[in-house]
């Protein structure tokens, strides 16, 4: 709101100053994006790189970003505080570069506050569960983490640190360990931690309306999940949500760091005793009807490509510990998973919660023993969820799950599944040569993210269809757009006709590690919707799209990538990229497109780009009031007056100019469209009485400022730019475009508001504009009788084509509302227009 | 029998990534974070190719190169280094290094160079 008010009341910058700043911002942003692209590529697994490389690349990136922020500050009269945002990001990145731990002195964290920088502080179990809810939006029980810092504080408060340090030797006696455990159990909880736990329990109580108990478990896996310490530390189940009970359970879990067996195990892994700090997970217990374990890859090689579900009544402990003969389901992995086998287990025992805390194993009621404990529908839901998790972690997962009495699926844990690899190390390029599948596209375009994927083609016609992209599909589109992030959790790969390796989308694809090929030229013509294909993107000049599924390539690609990603150092460096290339600001048309959402360098760049376009539009509109104008005379009576900022008109152009005098490429294309034979209707369309009353009763709103001055339609132009604001009767139409040879710089912004007719007709016209703009690839937003359409990162030729058609649309839609007397005509006239029939 | 490759770089990530990448091509790979331990290992075992970083604390890449050329003349040495050290690297090339790569090193090109070194 404040931003909007600032825009209304603040005088924008003079266009003659604004335009060069805009161009400088584009230039700096592009350089910054190129550095991000280079970092993404170099750190993606194809290069050996060291810390010097990251240092140098990051300082170059900071330089470009700082320059751009300075220009942006001048352009927007310091309306936004981006420097603060960058300072925070910069200090986080530097703390990783300098090798210091990222500071986190929180004692207790609810899962919504956990980010990747806290992985070490909250431990593997908490971290991975928080990822499932924060990044994948999966349903997990409400929970909080007690951090490693709390553990340190607890030891410090109870003066246990020295005692623990003295255990360092190899011959610790069981008595010494028992003493330490005893001291922990008797220890006091520090006051800050005590109140942090209390308030976390209260928050959980608000979420879980029903009676709640907690599972208090160790979260002391290392952050890569390499050492899971499975079963080494104590878990306390069914803990009542009372501070004292939770704190007692917490101390029990901490004390298990010094259990005899656990100490032996820690030594085997090379940990000095007392060096581990234990974060703890407090997770709401699910009142489970059924629960169990799912392996996203069957351990049985003969069943490759299938998942295995073990399920039993009640809590999952009986299944995990193998106490009961569970139901077994085999599900084939596919876009729509297929249940291929069900086997009823005896399920002689089941685990249930006890009323006064704790759990117990009881005999399963006879009528349930031989009955499958989950339905086919639940199996499908669970399978889809498991495939999402596997895709996210890019390796097979071992998932604990439960169905609650509320009918909801809960994911309780996901960790890497260790399975025997098939010995396929001899597979090499020969396999590629032996592939029988026809190659449909070979060595075209740029490989943005290498990798291999197969799936069915989803041919995207306009961005509104992104929600429809099914799981495992290969997204094929004309342009590249950061909005595709909406489909990325589901897309197996992305192929586009245009695009560059340094675009916003390219950075996100690297971030998500989605195999991506851009700028193929004509993939949308070659590939058809629903066709099964395999993308093999190895390197620049070495990519192929095959018809059908090429299994040998898929298997090999997966394995290589996994090994590299398991490296701790590699992942640490990749973490840095999480603050650089990740993108949270996806859609400029939504309200959350604010500085507060700028969490990464990429966000800041995107924010500056979008807001610079807005600032330029404002400056252009304002320019019309003060500048020397030249009148444009063309074949239609559009009444356009021109302000040339340089290079937009021929040198000798007089006060009255013709189309031939126009040098501005984007303006030329627009005029050509507007003057297209038949598009501009010269005869007046009669208004009905209702329309007249409607138009009289509406005061021109704030938007009227934007449409020219004194009834003039204004075009602010340069060789590469046009801002055309038109007022025709009661509607205002604005088109802003920057166009040069670099697709990354190009944008088109289209806005249409108002009209003379009643709201029904006006909104029908808006719907028609929506259909047409979407067809040209613009992303749109409608509010009442206002429509905004945007597209950016478009190839030069494509931009000119869209401008030409936008020009025709401006002309055609001028009086169209008067004829749109019923809803059925919207689609009819839209299709007519798209077919080139401009008759009204 | 697999060919043996030694990687020496004081940055763990370089060693680990190189090891994974080269093992994919069925080489036997050993990695060392400093020149001293690498030279000790060379006394025990023959390596076909040594890939070494130039600038390291203690025994640097040039010393590794010198020792290898003197004592194990059949072993080829490939030098990798930060771009800033280009002049020294050119000196190194004169000193009979088989190949030289500025960092970041494209793994594919390093593999091609190793293959070439082994076929000579």
Please give a structural write-up.
The complex is a heterodimer of chains A (840) and B (120). Chain A has 840 residues and is of the alpha+beta class. Chain A folds into five domains: 2-96 and 585-617, no CATH class; 142-283, 2-Layer Sandwich (Dna Ligase, domain 1); 288-405, D-amino Acid Aminotransferase, Chain A, domain 1, CATH 3.30.470; 436-549, Glucose Oxidase, domain 1 (3-Layer(bba) Sandwich); 625-834, no CATH class. In chain A, 39% of the residues lie in helices and 21% in strands. In chain A, strand 27 (721-728) and strand 28 form a beta hairpin. With 120 residues, chain B is α/β, with parallel strands linked by helices. Chain B is 47% helix and 22% strand. Chain B is built from five helices and six strands, in the order βαβαβαβαββα. Chain B has helices at 12-24, 35-44, 61-71, 86-94, 107-119; strands spanning 4-8, 28-32, 49-53, 76-81, 99-102, 105-106. In chain B, strand 4, helix 4 and strand 5 (99-102) form a beta-alpha-beta unit. Chain B is globular and about 35 Å long. The mean pLDDT of chain B is 87. The chains are: A alpha+beta (840), B alpha/beta (120). The interface between A and B is medium-sized, with 20 and 22 residues. Strand 1 (47-48) of chain A pairs antiparallel with strand 6 of chain B, so a sheet runs across the interface.
Question: Summarize this, please?
Answer:
The complex is a heterodimer of chains A (840) and B (120). Chain A is an alpha+beta fold.
């Amino acid at each position: 709101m404040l931003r909007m008010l600032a825009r209304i009341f603040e005088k924008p910058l003079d266009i003659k100053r604004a335009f060069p700043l805009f161009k400088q911002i584009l230039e700096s942003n592009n350089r910054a994006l190129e550095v991000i692209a280079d970092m993404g590529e170099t750190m993606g697994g194809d290069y050996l790189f060291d810390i010097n490389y990251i240092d140098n690349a990051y300082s170059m990136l900071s330089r470009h970003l700082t320059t751009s922020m300075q220009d942006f500050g001048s352009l927007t009269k310091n309306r936004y505080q981006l420097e603060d945002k960058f300072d925070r990001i910069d200090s986080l990145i530097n703390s990783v570069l300098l090798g210091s731990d990222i500071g986190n002195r929180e004692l207790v964290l609810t899962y919504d506050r956990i980010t990747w920088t806290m992985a070490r502080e909250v431990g593997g179990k908490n971290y991975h569960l928080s990822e499932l809810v924060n990044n994948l939006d999966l349903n997990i029980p409400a929970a909080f983490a007690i951090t490693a810092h709390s553990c340190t504080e607890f030891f410090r408060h109870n003066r246990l640190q020295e005692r623990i340090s003295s255990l360092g030797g190899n011959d610790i006696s069981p008595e010494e360990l028992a003493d330490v455990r005893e001291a922990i159990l008797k220890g006091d909880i520090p006051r800050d931690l005590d109140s942090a736990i209390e308030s976390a329990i209260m928050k959980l109580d608000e979420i879980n309306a029903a009676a709640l108990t907690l599972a208090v478990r160790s979260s002391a896996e290392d952050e890569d999940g390499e050492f899971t310490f499975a079963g080494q530390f104590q878990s306390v189940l069914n803990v009542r949500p009372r501070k004292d009970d939770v704190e007692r359970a917490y101390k029990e879990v901490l004390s298990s760091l010094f259990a005899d067996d656990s100490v032996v195990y820690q030594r085997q892994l090379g940990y000095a005793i007392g060096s581990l700090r234990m974060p703890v997970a407090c997770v709401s217990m699910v009142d489970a009807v059924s629960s169990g374990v799912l392996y996203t890859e069957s351990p049985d090689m003969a069943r490759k490509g299938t998942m295995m579900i073990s399920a039993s009544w009640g809590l999952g402990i009986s299944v995990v510990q193998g106490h009961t003969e569970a139901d077994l389901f085999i599900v084939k992995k596919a876009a729509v998973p297929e249940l291929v086998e069900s086997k009823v287990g005896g399920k002689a025992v089941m685990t249930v919660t006890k009323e006064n805390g704790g759990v117990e194993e009881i005999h399963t009621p006879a009528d349930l023993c031989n009955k499958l404990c989950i339905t086919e529908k639940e199996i499908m839901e669970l399978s889809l969820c498991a495939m999402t998790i596997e895709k996210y972690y890019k390796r097979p997962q071992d998932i604990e799950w439960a169905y609650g009495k509320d009918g909801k699926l809960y994911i309780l844990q996901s960790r890497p599944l260790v399975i025997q690899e098939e010995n396929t190390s001899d597979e090499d390029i020969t396999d590629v040569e032996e592939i029988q599948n026809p190659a449909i596209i070979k060595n075209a375009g740029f490989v943005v993210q290498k990798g291999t994927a197969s799936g069915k083609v989803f041919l995207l016609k306009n961005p509104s269809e992104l929600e429809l992209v099914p799981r495992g599909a290969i997204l094929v589109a004309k342009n590249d757009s950061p909005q595709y992030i909406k489909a990325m959790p589901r897309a197996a790969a992305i192929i586009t006709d245009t695009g560059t390796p340094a675009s916003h989308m390219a950075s996100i694809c690297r971030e998500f590690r989605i195999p991506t090929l851009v700028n193929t030229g004509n993939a949308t013509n070659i590939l058809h919707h629903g066709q099964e294909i395999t993308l093999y993107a190895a390197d620049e000049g070495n990519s192929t799209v095959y018809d059908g599924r090429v299994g040998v390539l898929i298997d090999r690609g997966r394995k290589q990538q996994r090994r590299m990603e398991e490296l701790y150092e590699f992942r640490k460096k990749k973490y840095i990229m999480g603050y650089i290339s990740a993108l949270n600001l996806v859609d400029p048309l939504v309200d959350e497109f604010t500085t507060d959402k700028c969490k990464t360098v990429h966000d800041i760049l995107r924010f500056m780009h979008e807001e610079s376009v807005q600032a330029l539009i404002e400056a252009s509109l304002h320019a019309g009031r003060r500048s020397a104008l030249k009148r444009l005379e063309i074949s239609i009576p559009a009444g356009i007056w021109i302000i040339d900022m340089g290079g937009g008109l021929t040198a000798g152009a007089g006060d009255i100019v013709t189309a031939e005098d126009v040098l501005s490429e984007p303006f030329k294309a627009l005029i050509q469209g507007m003057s297209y034979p038949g598009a501009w209707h010269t005869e007046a369309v009669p208004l009905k009485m209702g329309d007249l009353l409607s138009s009289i009763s509406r005061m021109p709103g704030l938007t009227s400022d934007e449409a020219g001055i004194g009834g003039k339609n204004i075009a602010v132009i340069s060789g590469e730019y046009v801002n055309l604001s038109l007022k025709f009767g009661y509607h205002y139409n604005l088109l802003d475009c920057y166009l040069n040879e670099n697709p990354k710089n190009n944008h088109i912004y289209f806005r249409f508001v108002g009209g003379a007719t009643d709201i029904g007709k006006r909104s029908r016209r808006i719907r028609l504009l929506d259909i047409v703009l979407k067809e040209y690839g613009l992303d749109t937003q409608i509010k009442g009788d206002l429509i905004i359409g945007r597209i950016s990162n478009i190839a030069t030729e494509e931009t000119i084509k869209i401008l030409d058609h936008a020009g025709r649309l401006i002309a055609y839609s001028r009086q169209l509302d008067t004829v749109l007397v019923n809803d059925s005509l919207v689609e009819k006239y839209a299709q007519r227009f798209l077919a080139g029939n401009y008759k009204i | 029998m697999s060919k043996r490759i030694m990687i020496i770089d004081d940055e763990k990530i370089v060693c680990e990534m190189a090891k994974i990448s080269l093992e994919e091509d069925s080489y036997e790979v050993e990695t060392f974070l400093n020149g001293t331990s690498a030279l000790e290992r060379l006394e025990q075992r023959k390596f076909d190719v040594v890939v070494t970083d130039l600038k390291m604390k203690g025994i640097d890449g040039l010393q590794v190169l010198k020792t290898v050329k003197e004592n194990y003349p059949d072993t080829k040495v490939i030098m990798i280094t930060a771009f800033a050290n280009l002049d020294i690297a050119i000196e190194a090339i004169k000193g009979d290094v088989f190949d030289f790569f500025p960092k970041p090193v494209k793994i594919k090109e390093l593999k091609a160079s190793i293959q070439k070194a082994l076929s000579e």
